[in-house]
Write a structure and sequence with these properties.
32% of the residues lie in helices and 17% in strands. The chain is an alpha/beta fold and 812 residues long. The chain has 4 domains: 282 residues, TIM Barrel, CATH 3.20.20; 190 residues, Glycoside hydrolase family 3 C-terminal domain (Rossmann fold, 3-Layer(aba) Sandwich); 122 residues, Immunoglobulins (Immunoglobulin-like, Sandwich), CATH 2.60.40; 97 residues, no CATH class. It has a 6-stranded mixed sheet with strand order 9-14-13-12-10-11. Strand 23 and strand 24 form a beta hairpin. Helix 4 packs parallel to helix 5, helix 4 packs antiparallel against helix 11 and helix 22 runs antiparallel to helix 23. The radius of gyration is 27 Å and the shape is globular.
Length: 812
Amino acid sequence: MKHQDIIQKMTIEEKAAFLSGKGEWDSRDISRLGIPSVFCSDGPHGIRKQAGAGDHLGLNESLPATCFPTAAAIANSWNPELGKEIGEALGREALALNVQVLLGPGLNIKRSPLCGRNFEYFSEDPFLTGKMAAAYIQGIQSQGIYACPKHFAVNSQELRRMAMNAVVDERTLREIYLTGFEIAVKEGRAKAIMSSYNQVNGIYANENQHLLQEILRKEWGFDGIVVTDWGGSNDHVKGVKAGSNLEMPAPGLDSARQIAAAVEEGSLTREELDTCVDQLLDAVLELRENSKIKRESFEQKEHHCLARKAAAESAVLLKNRDHILPLKPGCKVAVIGDFAKEPRYQGAGSSVVNPTFVETIEKVIPGYDLRVAGVVGGYRRSGEADEALKKEALDLAAGADVVLYCFGLDELSESEGLDRTHMRIPQNQIELLQALLQVNENIVGILSAGAAIEMPWQTCCKAILHGYLSGQAGAGALLDILAGKVNPSGRLAESYPLRYEDTPAFRHFPSTERNSEYRESIYVGYRYYDTSMVRVQYPFGYGLSYTEFLYSDLKVNTDGITAKITNAGDRDGAEVVQMYVGLPNAIVFRPAKELKGFAKIFLKAGESKEVRIPFDDKTFRYWNVKTNRWEVEMGTYKIMVGASVSDIRLEGEIEVEGTTTAYPYNPQEMPYYYTGIVQQISDKEFETLLGESIPDGRWGGELTANDAICQMYYAKSRIARFIYNRLTSIKKKSEEKGKPNLNILFIYNMPFRALAKMTAGAVSMDMVEGIVEVVNGHFVKGMGKVIGGFFQNRKANKVYEKKLSGGKGAEE
């Protein structure tokens, strides 16, 4: 152990308490031993340090910071160097705001377009996700700040996220949901990682030995700290045993008492406790040393310019009929849409940033060589019809050369704690678009949304520029593209299906009861559409440019490929060269092609360059559940290079030697997995994939401490059902207003046990058990436990606090 000298001086009470937070954002300090606390802050795309009382969901305003484009946007840049640059800026701002641990980036896989938090995640592809996350981490940590990538692992839905069990086979777990984290740990050298709320195959992620010990620490060599998601700890004794270091935010001393008792009983060894303490000590002492480098402020203008550059490089030009873009100088434009006046530039929830400055198209457009006929709202973003606004927009559009229509998903559509129920843009926005087409056919759609949407209306637009959630400087970035100052180079990091019913997890997302069954296996996103030949609106990797790129001279070597890329147009621009790998007639089922490398290259008009994309240890591998290791299947692999998964320009082959002849599957038992047609996998075929029976995930019987509060719908107690009805009513009213009540959403979906994990010691687990008994109709018995538990907990807390304040040395 690195810090044996300090650990020997610590009492068991100090060790146990040290492994939990003392407040909403800070860890516990031990002043007598000179052990400091460290401050954590949300920060996937900007620092959210609250000036006053802290709260998890961002209801209290935070200090001003740069709001960069969200991860969903930046992933479209396909530029890890840009991600690193943003990470460095985030690190500098963290230093200035005295933040030591930045809770991000988020790199969960976009299993379904409906996950409410997709705007915080990079991609549906683990390779792209991992490369972008590693770059962010390198940038953040270069400033002496810890990055804390999240949420480890298989966190793909918001609904009942703290009371949900992800049922997933080992191969899918490894290839799809862990590969991004593997790259983040091995290449990014992440020094912290956040465990997810959910169970993975019946075991909570934060106490999952397979995830935290076998894979994260032993296989990947992770030597940093594991931090729970806020309120995400179930049993911290099991968490410590699995190698989880810091239980957040403020569970009080009940968890510490449980840890100390477990050591005394022998269910947790002193070595296991000391190992966790040593790892956390290493982190807080390093961070204390790093924090001696003071930074009083950060360059707000410089970071705003970086945010603008990032937004411009990440925007995706989806359509450009008749080359309507870039707009001609002096063009008369009608700017229509509420988003032009009040942009949607970030999502809702714990990642909300208080920006230093926000650009709007309305205020920025006068600085361009365009004649602005006017700027009007056109629609209400809350969804209600407004004929007066609509008429004003139509009158303005009729007299313009081009209509710039700013529209997209509203605030209610994308938020932490809430999954989307459909993929549609609010209908009043689409009705206005269709009406605009009747008076002006030259419509340029400017989209704002953090996730994939259905686009049956796309024929109404001659051009579509998708900015995603483009951060505080997004307006200027998009106008730079529209006016031709910037050549668009963003490429989609996720597929856009024609309709939600076409998505691979359609029948199993979100989970209706406890289990979320990942029956689609490895066929996520383009892996499904491409293999099963399902038509999409826009494919993975797609995006247009104002110039044209030609591909030639592919060479495939044992260590990678080279190809020549030529800018054949009359504008400078950047191309994203994508390398996919496939194995026709494979013995082990697999997608038709998978992304295994990419390079973004800038070329002047007429210029040619050779691009090299290397192979690595992930290029040909698959997880073999029979040998329980990564293997390579022997065969002639197709190497495909192109501008998207559906636009392959060059093809080559390479012979690869295999590593085993022990293959894991019998094709006759898994016919649909071998075809990729996975929307309706039978129980039997899924169980064959799992290698065991599907666990029973039905709700029913009496509720437990691990059931969500929204499950009080089934409560036997009238009081509990009344509370459920009140929460549901408040939730619905906030949704009707178009602004979700994030605290209600959090409470609605959290399990009863979280009452003991997020109340700073006011509620103990014994009290929670009493509350659950009341909910189950045992009022007298349950209230006896609650009341008795309250006094016992208060007394025990005082005794423990006295021991902490008077600690004299380690017990022997």
